[in-house]
Design a protein that fits this description.
This is Elongation factor Ts. This protein is of the alpha+beta class and 302 residues long. It contains 13 helices and eight strands. Among the domains are: 47 residues, Ubiquitin-associated (UBA) domain (Helicase, Ruva Protein, domain 3, Orthogonal Bundle); 94 residues, Tetrahydropterin Synthase, Chain A, CATH 3.30.479.
Length: 302
């Protein structure tokens, strides 16, 4: 019994499974829709797909560094509960995902899903599905970043925040540089800058900020010429908030991160430049579901 693309679409809508899995199931079931659903359920795919509608805002931010090949990865994999984030099987899966990103260099999460997982015959997508079934929660590989070169990573709070910094330096491998790198990464985790340096802030963003600050000064009753001078002082405060190098160093407020970097390079007799960084915060931007039990009960009574 033949089947059409429409049948594949219908099966996908009924089970929530992927297009290829639906096509395989219909081929195996010789076009019989009910048999195909049964096959998908037997393989556990329909159950995994069912869980995929549930909100996963917990989980883990994790870092992996391959020192030999000079590759660093920070990855966020979400689960529904903190309990699962502490599960050794889940943590091992996240580690596998990070190593796969490091080795295979996928362009994005979709490309990562199609890759063969390191030390496995399964693709990352197949492994993810298997973990959803065995762990019993929806799991999502949300995002990752991969840098090549001299990187330093820092994970805070057992996986709530992850930072990776790429340096241009000739001091890599020195314990003093490693300590400096960790300080910078911790600074990023704590102070949450957006840019490395002032030059990276888009001109339109600076102008917008100046406009806001000028209106604030005028609203405070300051004359226009004084307001202009106040804007210049306050814009520097803005740069201190958003630019890493301009920020006061958390361990010594008398130093900026730029000055701390210069001092360290001088002491160690080499060069250090912070090229770029990435900072992931677990679950940021994911809307967590608020269960309203009263509304749910009222709905059921109706």
């Amino acid at each position: 019994m033949a089947f059409t693309a429409k049948d594949v679409k219908e099966l996908r809508e009924k089970t929530g499974c992927g297009m290829m899995d639906c096509k395989k199931a219909l081929t195996e079931a010789e076009g019989d829709m009910d048999k195909a659903i049964e096959l998908l359920r037997e393989k556990g795919l329909a159950a995994a797909a069912k869980k995929s509608g549930r909100i996963a805002a917990d989980g883990l931010v994790y870092a992996y560094v391959d020192d030999v090949n000079k590759v660093g990865v920070v990855i966020e994999v979400n689960s529904e509960t903190d309990f699962v984030a502490k599960n050794a099987e889940f943590q091992a899966f996240v580690d596998t995902c990070a190593k796969t990103v490091a080795q295979k260099n996928p362009a994005d999460v979709a490309a990562l899903m199609a890759e063969k997982a390191v030390d496995s015959d399964m693709t990352v997508e197949e492994m993810l599905r298997e973990k959803i079934l065995t762990i019993g929660e929806n799991l999502i590989i949300r995002r990752f970043a991969r840098f090549e070169g001299d990187v330093v990573t820092y994970i805070h709070g057992g996986g709530t925040h992850g930072v990776m910094v790429l340096f241009d330096t000739d001091l890599a491998g020195k314990p003093e540089f490693a300590a400096y790198g960790k300080d910078v990464a911790m600074q990023i985790a704590a102070a949450n800058p957006t840019f490395v340096r002032k030059e990276e802030v888009p001109a339109e963003q600076v102008e917008k900020e100046k406009e806001i600050l000028k209106v604030q000064a005028l609203n405070e009753g300051k004359p226009a010429n004084i307001a202009e001078k106040m804007v210049m002082g306050r814009i520097n405060k803005f740069f201190k908030e958003v630019c890493l190098l301009e920020q006061p160093f958390v361990k010594d407020q008398d130093l900026t991160v730029a000055k701390y970097t210069q001092n360290t390079a001088k002491e160690l007799g080499g060069k250090i430049e912070i090229v770029k960084f990435v900072r992931f915060e677990k679950g940021e931007g994911i809307e967590k579901r608020q269960d309203d039990l009263a509304a749910e009960v009222a709905k059921m009574v109706k």
